[in-house]
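Pipeline run #58 for the internal structure catalog. This entry was flagged by the ingest filter as a single-chain record with no existing model, so it goes straight to prediction. Upstream metadata was stripped on purpose; only the residue string is passed forward. Reviewer on rotation: M.T. Logging verbosity set to normal.
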Amino acid sequence: MSAPTRTAPPPGTWRLAGPDGRSVLLHRRNMLVAGALAALLVLVAAACLGIGSTVLDPLRALRGLLGLGPPRDVLLVRDLRWPRVEAAAAVGAALGLAGVLMQTLARNRLATPDTVGLNNGATAFAVASVTAVSTSLLPSAMALTGAATAAALAFALSGGAGRQGYRFLVVGLGVGAVFGAVTNLMLSRSSIDAAGAAYPWTVGSLTVATPAGIAMLEIGLLACLPAALLLTRPLGVLRFTDGVAAGLGARVRTVRTAVLVTSVVCAGLAVAVAGPLGMVALVAPEAARKLTGPGVVPVVSSALAGGVLVLLADLAGRTLAAPIELPAGLVTAVVGGPYLLWLLLTTRTRRTP
């Protein structure tokens, strides 16, 4: 008996065959873009390790990171610069991942954790843990609770994020404004010391990143990234109307809940580590879509693009106005603000491309 013939994979894809005869189709351009962004992430991270008040060449930076160089280099690279690089890459990846999931879920390029209130909710709860509430809870735990609260309010008040994605966005803006006002109220009624301690969580800065917060974020990413990859195909189906998506076999309500939970975890943990780094969740997915092309939900590429963006923002904040250090959130806002205006002026449809 002759072996069954295999059909050629669709144009622009690779077929990855398994030992049991099953195969997986991989989007060629998406894989190439993800590989290029991963390489760029490594290069930018290396630049962040070497550039600062003391400039190190790549070999010295690598030896310092491995603990093989002079004690001064080891202290500078491994103890001072590497934690910030690690935090920046993880925070950017989490925000990029949350952004692409939220945009696809709401079918709106403007629906990000910034605009639907998740970041403001996380910030309000994190600031409360420092200024307004006598609690031993870490800001990371409180930030995750705040993001979940904001998402639940926006989702409930808008009636969901599917057919009413535009309403979800508008309601999220209102919820975010309320949480922003609560944050300002807490800061205005706090002592100077307490307000100063909470300030980094309002502007977005990697100086407040702690080893415990970074570890929690990395654990969250290890859980959320595979979940997002499993949701990629159902998310592609959700670009259609609910009726069409259900007809194609998608469990619409289950997928929406899973996407929302994943986004909340990523956004909440990212804010807990570095505060609300604005515009990252908007710019990173959009850049990934431009590179990968239409018809793909660029989960991995968005996460990598977010990591690159935050690393560059932190590097610029440390070096452009040295010896004064600019918060990374300020840099991302300066870059992302004009881009948001351009997007609002040029977008003719509310659906993600």
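catalog note: The chain has one domain: 29-346.
catalog note: Residues 91 and 220 are 11 Å apart (CA to CA).
status: ready for reviewer M.T.
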